[in-house]
Design brief:
The complex is a heterodimer. By secondary structure, chain A is α/β, with parallel strands linked by helices. Chain A is built from eleven helices and 22 strands. Chain B has one domain: Rossmann fold, CATH 3.40.50. Classes of the chains: A alpha/beta, B alpha/beta. Chains A and B meet through α2, α6, β11, β13 and β14 of A and β3, β4, α3, α4 and β9 of B.
């Protein structure tokens, strides 16, 4: 439970000192010393060339770890349809399952949804566990977590993947906490360690400026959530066969203190921002609310969604639901067109993994140009309407 | 109403990079702040107190310097602040953190509502709020953008929860835990009086022993997940600045986007 300096190996080279993000290492009498505010992040261990920094850990070994087998995907559904991220998870899950030489299963929870199983099998699931009850028609954390926890305790998968959707980010932390196992959110990379056969989960931290690889060596299942559009969708093969296993509730009490009264759709969003393949975003450079019309026009012609920087939302020009960035939504479209957006770190955190980024800004020094695939320095009031016209003509 | 807000002190900027020559983390010497989403949590708590009376207490788990974040919270009008700090909780992942904060809440006593921010800017996991609720056996609702109705005597809460395509209206019983998003309110700035009060305020400090924490559930030992590597993501490269008049630039862009079949 501590980071130790092996004094006989430490040469006082001081490489570790700037490596510490918390300034918790100092040089004393020619040797490194860990200070009390060390957070055990381990950055120094990576950096020491002399093996002089070690982490002492006593990890409780889980007795029947080896009995956990199989890769599971939570087949989140809403209003009778499977969420698109599930097909991406099946694609990724298939690779993991193949490498571990084990099965890929999907978990379908809801009411009257068993017909969706065949689609899941076509997209790669060897098995689909179905739990149906009219009480499970709408998602609620309490009943869904009870069902999921019971299923996991019974069937013991070694890996559990779910989409990092609004539902996933509420449900899965609850399930992981109840199972007292590890959960890694918003993974951008998943792989199997060839020696240890455990899941290597890579994810961004500090707003995406750093990547971290995380493991859950002892507890099971190893749980990860993945955002939509990060992994590749599985290929559909209608000839694939699989097993559908109907699991009854068997008296499980799924009563809940929480009730969903109604769902209100956001009518300002004609195309769902998190689902969109193309996003046109406006920022402070637009100057006033009515100029968002330029953005909307271009988005419409391209069949894309309208996004915004924080400045525009704070100025009241567009609702918060359109905000892209650290305190808004994280998006990963194929094409992101940023108009009049300077590209502050917090905005980039929400869109820098877009496949192609186009930036239009009159300031050539704007940070957005550092991440843009194509940069256009100029007046957006001239360029954006020209683009709209150009794409309308070729449509 | 008895409300608790859980906050986290985070670095002010995410401008954390790795020096590619030495493969070490570089963090500009920036001050620490209250996690932005937590400021909305604090504000909501204060508004509820102004409307319904009662008390707001702020908790944080962190190193000794996290006391500064608590004082900032007090300057906004928070009544009491509790710092959970102990060498032994360092290295906690979200499960261990949830356990520790939940134990602190149990020691604190009866609470009507626990408010957390949606997620912390450094870890970005959004897991601790739900984790605390689970440890305490309380219902939780994430991404709350508005509290529509709250009746503490009837133990009733109705909120709007943000979803990708709109929002849901959800009702539940108190006590409950909610995590809030930016849209919920506009945080106040501290008053001069508040800042003076914060300077003199006494911060309650609890150690692992004060909370009788199970050593196996805290810190690194209590963390099922473990970071084994940190690295900088590949910088986006190969970007081109288009040249020429606006018309020319537009033409070039249209051509390129068509070429790669994006439009």
């Amino acid at each position: 439970m501590a980071i130790k300096i092996l004094k006989d190996k430490c040469t006082g080279c001081q490489l570790c000192i700037p490596a510490c993000p918390y300034g918790a290492i100092e040089l004393v009498d020619g040797k490194a010393r860990i200070l009390p505010h060390c957070t055990l992040c381990g950055a120094c261990i990576e950096v020491c060339k002399f093996g002089a920094i070690v982490m002492e850990v006593k990890k409780e070994k889980v007795a029947d770890k080896e009995s956990f087998k199989g890769v599971w995907v939570f087949a989140e559904s809403r209003r009778g349809g499977i969420m698109p991220v599930v097909y991406e998870l099946l694609g990724e899950g298939r690779k993991l399952a193949d490498e571990l030489k084990t099965d890929l299963s999907a978990v379908l929870i809801g009411s009257k949804i068993s017909s969706l199983s065949s689609g899941l099998i076509g997209y790669g699931a060897d098995k689909v566990f179905v739990v149906e009850d009219k009480e499970l028609k709408d998602f609620r954390d309490e009943p869904f977590s009870k069902v999921l926890v019971k299923l996991i305790e019974e069937e013991k998968p070694e890996i559990f993947l779910a989409g990092a959707t609004a539902i996933g980010r509420s449900l899965i932390p609850k399930v992981a906490a109840r199972l007292k196992t590890g959960l890694t959110a918003d993974c951008t990379g998943l792989a199997i360690d060839p020696e240890k056969k455990i899941l290597l989960q890579t994810r961004p931290a500090f707003g995406g400026n750093i990547m971290a690889t995380i493991i859950c060596p002892e507890k099971r299942p190893q749980m990860s959530t993945v955002r939509h559009k990060v992994m590749q969708k599985a290929k559909f093969d209608k000839a694939r066969s699989g097993k559908v296993i109907n699991k009854g509730l068997n008296g499980l009490d799924i009563s809940a203190k929480t009730k969903v009264l109604k769902m209100v759709e956001d009518l300002t969003q004609k195309v769902n921002l998190t689902e969109a393949n193309i996003i046109v975003s406006g920022g402070r450079g637009l100057g006033e609310a009515k100029n968002f019309k330029l953005i909307e026009d271009l988005a419409k012609v391209l069949g894309g969604a309208v996004g915004s920087s924080r400045s525009a939302v704070d100025a009241g020009w567009i609702p918060y639901s359109h905000q892209v960035g650290q305190t808004g939504k994280t998006v990963c479209p194929n094409l992101y067109i940023a108009c009049g957006i300077s590209g502050q770190i917090q905005h980039l955190a929400g869109m820098q993994s877009s496949k192609v980024i186009v930036a239009i800004n009159k300031d050539p020094e704007a940070p957005i140009f550092k991440v843009a695939s194509y940069g256009l320095v100029g007046d957006l009031f001239e360029i954006v309407p020209l683009l709209t016209k150009r794409f309308r003509e070729s449509a | 109403m008895n409300i608790v807000v859980c906050i986290k002190q985070v670095p002010e900027t995410n401008d954390v990079r790795i020096n590619n020559d030495t493969n070490t983390l570089i963090r500009e010497g920036v001050p620490s702040i209250i996690n932005p989403f937590d400021t909305y949590a604090l504000e909501e708590a204060l508004r509820l107190k102004e409307k319904l009376g009662g008390k707001v207490t702020v908790f944080t788990m962190g190193p000794p310097q996290a006391e500064e974040a608590l004082r900032q919270a007090i300057s906004l009008g928070i009544d009491e602040a509790i710092l959970i700090s102990d060498r032994r909780v360092a290295g906690s992942d979200t499960l261990a953190t949830s356990y520790t904060l939940a134990e602190a809440l149990k020691k604190y006593g009866e609470v009507d509502l626990i408010i957390c921010g949606k997620q912390a800017m450094d870890g970005d996991t959004a897991q601790v709020g739900p984790g605390i609720a689970e440890s305490l056996g309380l219902p939780h609702i994430t991404y709350v953008k508005k509290i529509e109705e709250i009746r503490p005597d009837d133990r009733y809460l109705k909120v709007e929860r943000m979803m990708e395509e709109g929002y849901e209206v959800i009702e539940t019983n108190l006590p409950a835990l909610i995590t809030v998003v930016k849209e919920i309110n506009e945080p106040r700035v501290p008053s001069l009086k508040g800042m003076m009060r914060a300077k003199k305020a006494e911060i309650v400090k609890w150690s692992a022993a004060d909370l009788a924490l199970d050593e196996k559930k805290i810190g690194l030992d209590g963390s099922p997940t473990w970071v084994i590597k940190i690295f900088t993501p590949e910088a986006r490269s190969g970007g081109q600045m288009l040249q020429g008049s606006p018309r020319e630039q537009v033409e070039q862009l249209a051509g390129k986007l068509k070429e790669i079949k994006l439009v």
